[in-house]
Amino acid sequence: MTAPDAGSSSASIAIGQIAVAQGCGALRTLVGSCVALVLHAGQHRASGVAHVMLPSSDGRGSQPGKYADTAVAETLRLLREATQDPGLSCTAKLVGGAAMFAFRGGVPIGEQNVMALERILGECGIGIVGRACGGQYGRRVTVDVATGTVTVATAEHGTETL
């Protein structure tokens, strides 16, 4: 888990990490089959990003941002801690989940990540208000902490704003 320094305006989130910030600045990550889980609490001008690599932790306790089944709860906990609001209300955006590698049979890992996050967010009552998922290409993700606006850039498919 990471958080920008008090005076910092941005943070980069690596695989398995979570970053939460409030006020101004940006949170950034790069995803392919991984998914950037973005939670935004508009009333507090706060956002959190988890770089989710796998759909299930299978009981592993390390790096909660790495797994869909632990990333949602941990990102919510960190947002509640940052805003000092135990009843925090937020929305979600999902970016990534691409089919980056040849995959034989079954559901590709990127799609599994997206489906797991959709299910968990639904169970938590958190609405998904934006998504840029699937395809066969990576994405650069930039989150405006205050507004929750997500800019998704790709090498061959341009830029999209969620």
Residue-averaged pLDDT: 91
Low-confidence blocks of residues: 4-8
Major sheet characteristics: 5 strands, mixed
Q: What's the CATH architecture name?
A: 2-Layer Sandwich
> What would you call the shape?
globular
Q: Helix count, per DSSP? A: 2
Helix/strand class: alpha+beta
In total, the number of domains comes to: 1
- The radius of gyration is 15 Å
Order of H and E elements = EEEEEHEHEEEE
What's the CATH C level? Alpha Beta
How much beta, percentage-wise?
A: 25-35%
> Order of strands side by side in the largest beta sheet?
1-3-8-9-10
Helix content, binned percent: 10-25%
| Topology-level CATH name | 60s Ribosomal Protein L30, Chain: A
Number of strands: 10
Architecture blueprint of SSEs:
Blueprint: E1 10-12, E2 18-22, E3 26-31, E4 35-41, E5 46-52, H1 68-83, E6 91-96, H2 109-123, E7 128-133, E8 139-144, E9 150-154, E10 158-161
Parallel strand pairs: 1-3, 6-7
Antiparallel strand pairs: 2-5, 3-8, 4-5, 4-6, 8-9, 9-10
Q: Would you write up a description of this structure?
A:
The chain is built from 2 helices and 10 strands, in the order E-E-E-E-E-H-E-H-E-E-E-E. The strands form 2 sheets. Strands 1-3-8-9-10 form a 5-stranded mixed β-sheet, with no helix packed on it. A 5-stranded mixed β-sheet has the order 2-5-4-6-7, with helices on one face. A hairpin with a 3-residue loop joins strand 9 (150-154) and strand 10 (158-161). It has one domain: 60s Ribosomal Protein L30, Chain: A (2-Layer Sandwich). The protein starts with 9 loop residues before the first strand and ends with a strand. The radius of gyration is 15 Å and the shape is globular. The chain is of the alpha+beta class and 162 residues long.
